[in-house]
Here is the input.
Amino acid sequence: MATPVLNYISEQDYLEGERKAFEKHEYYKGEVFAMSGALLPHNEIFSNLFGELATRLRGKNFKPYGSDLRVHIPANTLYTYPDISIICGKVETIDDQFDTAVNPAVIIEILSKSTRDYDKGSKFTLYRAIKTLKEYILVDSNNIAVEKFIRHTDNSWQLTEFKLLTDVFSINTVDIDIKLADIYERVKFS
Here is the structure.
């Protein structure tokens, strides 16, 4: 997690400030953390993957959202902006501002050097408190690698890894297959 930018504040004060802010911030247990921008490989991966999801899910009961849709986890106070979230059915929001969802079924984070440990560790631990979350997918922006975690009925999580451009993985919740070659199209690693 990034360095906090403010002293302890309430969730209400965070939301009021965040709704006026030009930059995005995460909130966790009274602390606010500035979020950094992304490099070109991250943006290429996002464009490829989000475009694929939006096209393939059009007309279905699932919808992908980008990182402008904030997600809140009441069980642990986290407010965050996943790179991509997929919501099944109606978006449930925390209030009438319609900018903070609580019911993602799939969350996809695109890993960078600065977020890798947080996204794979603490953040995944916090995400597991989302009762509607069925799959958590990590896409590396520094190498060809996708990690897919799927929740079982006993609340255990199973990891499957994909490391070749010829690999295909399923997003079971929305019943689609994604080719790594499509995710990494035009991506140049530094």
Remarks:
- The domain at 38-183 is CATH 3.90.1570.10 (tt1808, chain A).
- The longest helix spans residues 40-57.
